[in-house]
Amino acid sequence: MKIAIGSDHAGYAMKEGLKKFLANRSIEVVDCGPDTDAKPAEYVPIAKAVAEKAAGAEADGGILICGTGMGMSIAANKVPGVRAGLCNELFTAKYAKSDVNINVLCMGSRVISQRLAEEITTLWLDTPFTGGRFIPRLQQLSELEAETRDGR
Ligand code: RB5
């Protein structure tokens, strides 16, 4: 499994911790930056880089960290094929995967601890998508995306 990961300056330390956590699970990590928190890193271009990989063939999913997770989730959801979810607690993480099959997990480094971020990540990785009645809803999301593309 390959996971693309990125953050802004606020999420940098949590990203670095999650990289080690994922490596310990033998998950390949593609780091989309930044490589320091010594200067501001804008969340939009990092979200785009991770989201494009997660929606395409370059990764099986993506993880994005900013202070709240909010900017990252909004930006990632503008990339076609992405279902990004802001999960700062376990209940949401479980159902975001089982019911919505999110392919990009967003978390807030100023909201939750590193330990909780790792537990949320584990739940997201290990919870299977339920499928069944949830499939038509994902299809509707794809249709909405197609309808609203190009500013329509
Ligand atoms: C950065 O200060 C902060 O605005 C950002 O990390 C994030 O919380 C935005 O949603």
UniProtKB/TrEMBL annotation:
Q: Which family does it belong to?
A: Belongs to the LacAB/RpiB family.
List the protein's name: Ribose 5-phosphate isomerase B
Q: Which GO terms describe its molecular function?
A: intramolecular oxidoreductase activity, interconverting aldoses and ketoses
The record's section on InterPro entries has: RpiB (IPR004785), RpiB_LacA_LacB (IPR003500), RpiB_LacA_LacB_sf (IPR036569), SPI_LacAB/RpiB (IPR051812)
The organism of origin for this protein: Propionispora vibrioides
Q: Print the keywords alphabetically.
A: Isomerase
- Lineage, uppermost ranks: Bacteria, Bacillati, Bacillota, Negativicutes, Selenomonadales
Highest taxon in the source lineage? Bacteria
Among the record's GO biological process terms, what is one? carbohydrate metabolic process
Q: What Pfam family does this protein match (any one)?
A: LacAB_rpiB
